[in-house]
Specification:
By secondary structure, the chain is α/β, with parallel strands linked by helices. The chain contains 12 helices and 20 strands. The structure holds pyridoxal-5'-phosphate (PLP).
Length: 369
């Protein structure tokens, strides 16, 4: 008796290692590959994913908030851990205690780090985030020089790197990416560790790799532009690492013209066999997949009928013989000869694979294989 959930995420560590090695080979050994493990490694489990990447040779990791960095370091991860979203001043000690690299974009945070460094008789290395066109976090390019010279006056702090971020590198012909990179190259001094490329950058704009790249989605086996990324891939394919499965809770035959689930948004056209599944939007199966999504049972596709509930949904198995309680159901991954990918689900949801992976991975029990 384990009380295990019906719903299970399975993570394939060898796929994560494969993706790391493939991408490191693509960018060349001279470029550092920072693994973005924010959002619990896009739903894959931050520590487990970081261990898999470490095994494949990774020694640079990126998180959003400082607490994630503390957790990663406390779990025994070696190498550099970059904190990308800044920090509140009362947390400044954590950078020193857990050996984390701050990515900064305000003078106040630089001053707080400087004061703490002096107190500890240490020098802390920081990376500065500049906004070359993402219009998100970061200093505007025109104030960078002033910022850098103010930083030089602060004791105990050393600017080691310069970072920016591409908004359109997943569009392989985006002129904006090249224009933005041109601006980025013109900024800061020569001695800095530069990084701006994300997955789209390294796959579609390899000339933008600089000294380091920050990779998220590609490490998890997906192309930032979804299915067209796979279609245009000429080399070895990335391998998705996540599968999501459940099992049939009940099978029932209902007559034609009955409404299914809340609001009766689906009415059966003929006598139908429905399988009830113990998975709903609380498990990351977005309500947007109501009457749109599909799952695999006995290696065949079954459509979601009616609205997805909080922890239940119904699928049509009229055309699949012999479906029984307990039969395995694949929501993401392969069964028989068919596969449902995060890109396909994202298409039904009008979203991107990133969101599907986070929703599934971060709302269910996970196990690694
Ligand atoms: C998430 C993130 C990345 C990785 O983006 P992908 O498209 O998943 O490769 C890179 N840099 C920053 C700052 C990020 O927040």
């Amino acid at each position: 008796m384990t009380g295990e959930s019906f719903n299970q995420i399975t993570l394939n560590r060898s796929a994560l290692r494969h993706n790391y090695r493939l991408l490191q080979k693509r960018i060349g050994a001279d470029v550092r590959l920072l693994a973005m493990v924010k959002a619990d490694a896009y739903g894959h489990g931050m520590v487990a994913a970081a261990i898999a990447f470490s095994e494949a040779g990774c020694s640079d990791f990126g998180v959003g908030e400082i607490g994630e960095g503390v957790h990663l370091r406390s779990s025994g991860i070696q190498g550099s851990i970059f904190v990308f979203l800044g920090f509140v001043q009362s947390d400044v000690e954590l950078f020193f205690e857990y050996d984390l690299v701050p990515v900064i974009y305000t003078l106040e945070s630089a001053k707080a780090l400087s004061t703490e460094a002096v107190k500890r008789d240490k020098i802390i290395a920081v990376h500065v985030k500049v906004d070359c066109g993402m219009t998100r976090l970061g200093l505007m390019p025109d104030v960078l020089d002033e910022f850098v010279s103010e930083l030089e006056y602060l004791p105990g702090i050393k600017m080691e790197g310069l970072a920016s971020h591409f908004p359109k590198a997943d569009e392989r012909k985006s002129l904006h990416t090249l224009e933005q990179f041109h601006v980025f190259k013109s900024l800061g001094g020569n001695a800095l560790t530069r990084h701006t490329a994300n997955s789209g950058g390294i796959l579609y704009f390899p000339d933008t790799c600089c000294d380091m790249v920050r990779v998220g989605i590609a490490l998890y086996g997906y192309y930032p532009d979804g299915l067209s990324g796979i279609q245009f891939e000429t080399g070895e394919l990335l391998q998705p690492a996540m599968e999501f499965s459940t099992q049939v809770l009940q099978v029932k035959t209902v007559p034609a013209n009955v409404g299914v689930s809340y609001g009766h948004t689906y009415i059966t056209k003929t006598e139908s066999r429905l399988a009830v599944l113990p998975v709903g939007y609380e498990d990351g199966l977005s309500r947007r997949l109501s009457n749109r999504g599909e799952v695999l049972i006995h290696g065949k596709r079954a459509k979601i009928r009616g609205r997805i509930c909080m922890n239940l949904c119904m699928v049509d198995v009229t055309h699949i013989k012999g479906v029984q309680v307990g039969d395995p159901v694949t929501l993401l991954g392969s069964q028989g000869n068919d596969t449902i990918s995060g890109d396909e689900i994202a298409g039904w949801m009008d979203s991107i694979s990133y969101e599907v992976l986070c929703l599934f991975g971060n709302n269910n029990e996970r196990k690694c294989i």
